[in-house]
Amino acid sequence: MKKLKMVLMISLSMLILLTACSNNSPEPASEAAGNNQSAAGAADKPEELKVLYATVEAGSEAIIDAAKAYEQQSGIKISVDTFPYNNLQEKVFSELAQKSDYYDLIAIDTPWVPKIIQHIEPMTSYIQNTKSPELLQLDDFIAKAFLDTSVFKADAPQQNPPQMDTIDLDKIVSEGFDIWSLPIQSNVLTVSYRKDLFNNEENKAQFQQQYNRELAVPQTLDEYLDIAKFFTRDTDGDGKIDLYGTTLMGKKHEANFVDFKSFLSDFGGSIFDDNLVPVFNNEAGVKALETYGSWVSEHKVTPPGVLTYTWDEVATVFGSGQVAMGMNYHDMKLDPKVEGGDTGYFVFPGVENGGEIVRGPHFGSWGIGISKYSNNKQAAYELAEALTSPDVQKGYLNFKQHVTRNSAYVAAEALPDALSKEYYQVLGESLKVGVGRPRITNYDQVSEAVQIAVSEYLSGKKDAKQALDDGAKQVQSLMEQAGY
């Protein structure tokens, strides 16, 4: 682990040094277009294109299958190298820091963009001059996912893009932004639940009597808590609770950060204000953290080991049938050994405000981008366009890929498997209301500072306000050190 951290720090330092010392500021779109065309003219059809990609966290199986099909269609050999997340991040940073031309396309997790934007080829001019508009169809992408994943300003990547319900390239360009990748996979916090427990007639009658409403999918965090309390019980009469209402991801970990961020967004809060001043310690933040913590300490609707859980442990606990509901970034399923078990899915609940329910499940997407040092930029763009095209994304449904196009979610409505169909419906709805990560170069450090604050509250070391105030001071210091 220490060796990995050292390599990551060296790679990041190389990136920063290259960015600071180089005069290679991003070219204007017109100049880039000219350079693109000249590069393309030298090799319109390279013998091989090399792709650097993630493993299962970004749906590698689906992408490799699509790459093979493209290879047969185009006659270009497509090589896809895959690495698990930490190794991939190290590899991406190292390749770009060395200005290596080995890879043409690279998988990009959204938080990396502010660090590596000077080393990615902007796609805007390629998009404007696409040879295959039927493959591109920008207006088919889920707008929120596309804007969060792909739209950045080269000299100010921390700025949020213009908001729109349908992608308008002219508006994006007119406000000084570029397209840096095409969204290929999206994750968002959703809830898996035990339908068998919700549909049980005895449970429905008892819940109706106790809460004076129907036992149904909750729309708010308050409703969710009621259901979690209702299902936390001793089912075998031995005097010990063996079924809990829900899971959380309470370990000091990235999962902890995005868990808290989802509650924070529900209460109308955010990590930063528009000037990148930390504000997660305000009233909304305190309320969010206290609500989150009360499920563990006061209401005790989570399993005893919840403060050691990340997304992996949550999936195991839900799968074993120990909880009635569980939150995660993929479609959790019950183990077949759970007698009578039946799974369903719903959108992460929100908070009622002014007659409307505010929801803010955390989401993050993977983009596929062009290395600035590729010798095959035009061909690489065309491969990226194909790998994210409407028909190809519909094919990704066979691999349960988290697709990024509206048309793919429409196609999912015809899936023969009812459970997959339900999950895609929930996934698509969730992406449209999701909230992404802060656009900062020191994201990992900021995330860890917030993780510590949340953990100190959950462990009882500090009250919510003190923990968040201390965390905000640390984040402010980190932001100043990073030059913000």
TrEMBL record:
PROSITE patterns: PROKAR_LIPOPROTEIN (PS51257). Pfam families: SBP_bac_1 (PF01547). Keywords: Signal, Transport. Transmembrane segments: none annotated. The keyword Ubl conjugation does not apply. Belongs to the bacterial solute-binding protein 1 family. This is ABC transporter substrate-binding protein. It comes from Paenibacillus abyssi. The lineage of its organism: Bacteria, Bacillati, Bacillota, Bacilli, Bacillales.
